[in-house]
TrEMBL record:
Presence of keyword ATP-binding: no
4-aspartylphosphate modification, residue list: D55
One Pfam family of this chain: Response_reg
Keywords, comma-separated and alphabetical: Coiled coil, Phosphoprotein
InterPro entries: Bact_response_regulator (IPR050595), CheY-like_superfamily (IPR011006), Sig_transdc_resp-reg_receiver (IPR001789)
Protein name: Response regulator
Superkingdom to which the source organism belongs: Bacteria
The keyword Phosphoprotein is assigned to this record: yes
Matching SMART domains: REC (SM00448)
Coiled coil regions in record: 163-190
Domain Response regulatory: 6-123
Length: 219
C-alpha cells in the first residue's frame, strides 16, 4: 500500500483551515493543521511533509519568520512552501515571500482549482522521491553484504529474481517521472517544481546506471 503524503496547513483562523481542508480533500492525502508558526515548527520536528501552505499574517510568529526557521533546519529546508496572504502590499511584499524561501505566493481569495493543482504537483514529486529512496535502499542492502564492489555486484547477479524486481520497480518510477515532467512542461509550471522534477530524473538516471552495471555480462 502506498503511504499518503502529508500536507501541512498553517493558519491562525480555524475557518481558513477548514476551507483549505475542503479544497484539498479531493487529493486524498493526509492534511495536518497548525494554528501558529510555533505549532507548525513542532509538527515539522517529527513528520515529513510534501508541501507547506503557510499564512503570512499570523499573530506572534508570522509566516515570514516561520519560513525562515523552516529553511534554517537541515531536515526541513527542502520542503516547498506556498505562502497564502489576504493582503497585497505590492512587489516588495511578494519579493519578501520568495526571499523567505517560498516556491509560490498566492493572494486570497484564491482559485480553489489553481491551489489544488499546484499542491498536487508537489505531492507527486514527493511521492516519486519516496519511491526512489526505497529503490536505492533496497539496492544498498544488497550491496552491503560483500567485501568489495566486485563481490557485492556478484552477489546481486546471483539473485536474478531480485535484480529483475528492482529493475521493474525502477522502470515504473521512471515512467511516472517522465509523465510528470511532460505535464509540467505543458502547463508552464513553477520553476521550482520543474527544477525538482529535473533533479528527480537525474537521480533516477544514476540509479538505472547502477542497476545496468549489475546485469550479467555488463562490463
Amino acid at each position: 500500500m502506498v503511504q499518503k503524503a502529508k500536507i501541512l496547513l498553517v493558519d491562525d483562523r480555524p475557518e481558513n483551515l477548514l476551507a483549505l481542508e475542503a479544497i484539498l480533500s479531493a487529493l486524498d492525502q493526509t492534511l495536518v493543521r497548525a494554528s501558529s508558526g510555533e505549532e507548525a515548527l513542532k509538527a515539522l520536528l517529527t513528520d515529513d511533509f510534501a508541501v507547506i501552505l503557510l499564512d503570512v499574517q499570523m499573530p506572534g510568529m508570522d509566516g515570514f519568520e516561520t519560513a525562515a526557521h523552516i529553511k534554517r533546519r537541515e531536515r526541513t529546508r527542502d520542503i516547498p512552501i506556498i505562502f497564502l496572504t489576504a493582503i497585497n502590499h505590492g512587489p516588495h511584499h511578494t519579493f519578501r515571500g520568495y526571499a523567505a524561501g517560498a516556491v509560490d505566493y498566492i493572494s486570497k481569495p484564491f482559485d480553489p482549482w489553481v491551489l489544488r493543482a499546484k499542491v498536487s504537483v508537489f505531492v507527486e514529486l514527493y511521492m516519486k522521491n519516496c519511491q526512489l529512496r526505497e529503490q536505492a535502499a533496497l539496492l544498498r542492502l544488497q550491496l552491503e553484504g560483500g567485501e568489495s564492489p566486485e563481490q557485492n555486484g556478484a552477489a546481486v547477479r546471483e539473485s536474478p529474481g531480485l535484480l529483475a524486481e528492482l529493475s521493474a520497480r525502477l522502470a515504473a518510477v521512471e515512467e511516472q517521472a517522465e509523465a510528470l515532467s511532460k505535464q509540467l512542461d505543458d502547463e508552464s509550471a513553477d520553476a521550482a517544481a520543474v527544477a525538482t522534477a529535473a533533479h528527480l530524473e537525474r537521480k533516477l538516471t544514476g540509479l538505472r546506471r547502477a542497476l545496468d552495471a549489475l546485469e550479467p555480462g555488463a562490463s
